[in-house]
Amino acid sequence: PKVDARTGRHVGCEALARWRTPAGEYIPPNRFVPVAEQTGLISPLGNKVFQLAAQQATRWRRAGIDAHIAVNVSPHQMRHPRFVQQLQQILLDTQADPSWFELEITENAVMEEVAQAVRIMNELGQLGFRVAIDDFGTGYSSLSYLKNFNIHTLKIDLSFVRDLIRDHHSDAIVRSIISLGSGLDLTLVAEGVETNEQADFLREAGCDILQGYLIGKPMPAMQFEQWLREQALDL
Ligand code: MN
Prior knowledge:
- The radius of gyration is 18 Å and the shape is globular.
- The strands form two sheets. Strands 1-2-5-6-7-8-9-10 form an eight-stranded mixed β-barrel. It has a two-stranded antiparallel sheet with strand order 3-4.
- Helices cover 50% and strands 18% of the residues.
- It has eleven helices and ten strands.
- Bound molecules: manganese (II) ion.
- The site of manganese (II) ion has 4 residues, from loops.
């Protein structure tokens, strides 16, 4: 779940893939995602995740639930020649609207092949998707891409958020990212928010959206609907 840092109101969620085998064994994403990337299965897996998110978003809209879904895109997926067309096809099949989604792309994915990334992000933007840079500040960043790329959101990496308040270097980095992002009219999302002190710091520094265990742990979609209902009662 994600909430507005100022009002505490929900704004949507990030879709996360989880794998439990028929025998009940839990396989964490840091084990299966690298294997999927090595074998090329990441493209069908990524498309499946987007398809499930699109079906969910369409159901939610029909039920009057206004929740945006952020979907992670792997750099390997982006290199697939039909990446954008596949997303378009899924939108058609599920009758979902691109404006309901934010596609999260890691900074390293962008920097690996800048020219290709610019082209793809522009195509995604033209289709009506929002685009976020994930794990901002941890990659081989070049600030020049912020000037040229069609992006809407910066996600402040949890390694900075985790050390807020007890490490003044993290405080300074987070403040700088927020100031940079707001100057560029980008939405700022902090991930990995676990304490009220971190949330207060981020709100006062001007961060727009909070995500992390303090807001809500990752949960199945059905449970998220229940979480939304409880949020509405709290307001
Ligand atoms: Mn992400």
